[in-house]
Amino acid sequence: MEQPALPAETEAELEAHLRGICFKTGPPRRLGVEIEWLVHDAREPWSPVEPTRLHAAATALRALPLNSLLTFEPGGQLELSSLPATSLTSCIDAMAADLALVRPAMLDRGLSLAGHGHNPWHPPHRVRTEPRYDAMEAYFDRWGGAGRQMMAATASVQVCVDAGYEEPGPLGHGRRWLLAHLLGAVLAAAFANSPFSEGCPTGYRTTRQVIWSQLDPARTLAPPQDPDPRSAWVRYALDAPVMCIRAEDGPWDAPEGLTFREWVRTGVPRPPTRADLDYHVTTLFPPVRPRGHLELRMIDAQAGDGGWIVPLAVTAALFDDQEAAERAYRIVKPLAETAGTRPAPRNPLWRRAARGALTDPELHAAAVACFAAAQEALPRLGGSPGVQAAVAEFTERYVARGRCPADDHLDALSGTDAAPGTPHHPHAAGTAPDGDLTPGKDSP
């Protein structure tokens, strides 16, 4: 590939560049969603799909007139990323229209989309072999097998909200940054939907979240809390190890342990450019990533054609309605004591969310209050009656009862009666020791 013809820049210039792009402040007006799906055989979801079928499906989908950006992740997961929308309704309508094209096209090829935070059927298998993913796999292999699980066996609903105002207040970017890291644990618990790995319970409601906590801490933990989020992010990004250095030919290797700051200062193996820094930022995966807007990355993929709508609507209401944002902040602020000083997702609050989800009394109380605030805010945001009904149904079925979608799968395995319409997990048998991510894999 051709390298960008941009000159190397000084450390100060690159710091200024990062500060200028990480939090773009102003009134919250835009909303987006990125939805990942596991792709499986429509008749035998527990059977791995041949890479040739996945590549053929990708070619067919790219010919569709979609509004969203279509990508396939390393394990063949399908991702649709919406354009920034001016309202909750327009965001939902645009994504629903794209899915109405994608699903039939997949079924024509005997494939279906499944909403699970972690593949419950079979071990990870990477089907994309681009240099980026080769380098990523080699990099994460230094921390064990969790990197391959993350790359090829996980899926999520990522909600993108504006950074907020420059000034303090409920919609200020500093408040929203802190809110995202406390509310994030509540959202991870409420929408936990990945209790299985290779057919066995892992001991966690959201196995996906545990996998993220096992990866390189320098690029997957939250930056330290700081009164100035921009400064914290700039330090975090520059001090993170370089995952790969792009090259026209050959592998995208990087010297082990080389941080971007050291790369700038030494100029070895070649001086980095601003384009290199922009690419480096795409290899950082904290639970909340500032990309001008805030990208919330902690929600498991959800089952059903419209399962993604509820986390999108709830998150939008709690961030973009001023009254709901203030209430949510007051609700989750006490959770900081439980979280302690360790960054998410390795602190006690996020660990409790991953294991017990809403069986945890503190997280349950916070979720009940936050979902109530969101329900009251949705009419003010122009949420349709259908969206309001979907949030109310989810709240009654799960949140009010201290449950999450993962509990339905666990109930189906044990034979316990669950809520009407509970999907049956088709290939879960046996039990892994409590706390194990996969058979033989120690928990963090």
Strand composition percent? 5-15%
Helix content: 40-55%
Sheet/helix structural class: alpha+beta
Largest sheet: 7 strands, antiparallel
Q: Please report the distance between the alpha carbons of the first and last residues.
A: 38 Å
Shape: globular
**Could you state the order of secondary-structure elements as H and E?**
HEHEEHEHHEHEEHHHHHEEHHHHHHH
Unreliable stretches covering 5 or more consecutive residues: 1-5, 417-444
How much is the radius of gyration in Å? 21 Å
Count of DSSP strands: 9
Helix segment tally:
18
The chain-level mean pLDDT equals: 92
Structural features:
444 residues; 18 helices; 44% helix; alpha+beta; two-stranded antiparallel ribbon; seven-stranded antiparallel β-sheet; 9 strands; globular
